[in-house]
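User: Let's play a game. I give you a shape written as tokens, and you guess the letters that built it. Ready? Here's round one.
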């Protein structure tokens, strides 16, 4: 059996998807070698926990498709208690951000129309734009 070790994907939800894919490929009688050639090179979906670059030893991820507190929670959980600096905000959709308030490993930065809504429930710094939050 091959070593399926895709370092491009983070999170147990992505690893579980890989396991399902491997199981389906085996049902189709594909060899472990052929599966391994593909699995270890999967980059993931753009804007979904997409690793953009490393800056000063820090990995920077874009999870721009994560537009609700629940999807944001899944993204945070993918990093398994690592220290996270998270920029969130955008349009005010009157969502409940309190489900993110128990994370001790996350520093939050809020921007945009929803910044005050977020500030009400999360201990965070507030910025006028994504750019200003990113530069902080």
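Assistant: Ready! My guess for every position:
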């Amino acid at each position: 059996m091959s070593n399926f070790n895709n370092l491009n994907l983070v999170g147990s939800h992505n690893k579980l998807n890989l396991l399902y894919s491997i199981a389906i490929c085996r049902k189709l009688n594909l060899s472990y070698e052929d599966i391994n050639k593909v699995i270890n090179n999967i980059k993931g979906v753009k804007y979904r926990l997409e690793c953009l670059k490393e800056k000063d030893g820090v990995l920077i991820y874009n999870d721009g498709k994560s537009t609700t507190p629940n999807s944001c929670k899944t993204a945070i959980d993918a990093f398994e208690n690592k220290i996270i600096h998270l920029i969130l905000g955008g349009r005010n959709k009157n969502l409940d951000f309190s489900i993110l308030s128990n994370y001790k490993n996350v520093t939050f930065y809020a921007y945009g129309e929803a910044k005050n809504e977020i500030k009400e429930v999360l201990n965070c710094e507030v910025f006028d734009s994504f750019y200003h939050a990113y530069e902080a």
